[in-house]
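Why do we care about 3D structure at all? Because function follows from shape, and shape follows, mostly, from sequence. That is the central idea of this module. The next example makes it concrete: a single protein chain, its amino acid sequence, and then its structure expressed as tokens.
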Amino acid sequence: RKEVDEAIRQFTVALQENDERKTSKLRKAFEKRTDELEDFVLKYEDDERAILFEKQRLRLRRALNLAATAMPITSVEEKNTAATKKKEEEAPSTPPIKKD
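And the structure:
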């Protein structure tokens, strides 16, 4: 997991810095690693630990998909947080309860 976290962090930094050389290199490495993980999971699908490798494969695939849309990985979380705050700000306040 730590390996994937670090790789995604480096990929995000490369995207934010518009470092085409590094982004391309990491993209190719991610594609290769997702293929390797997929083969591994298929080979050992009966082992309950295989799901851990599948999760890492999916994280790498997600990073690639987000990069393909030219959206930095961290901006998705920031966008979701901003949308939640905006909804909270726009929500009408509850009127006080009148007592008779």
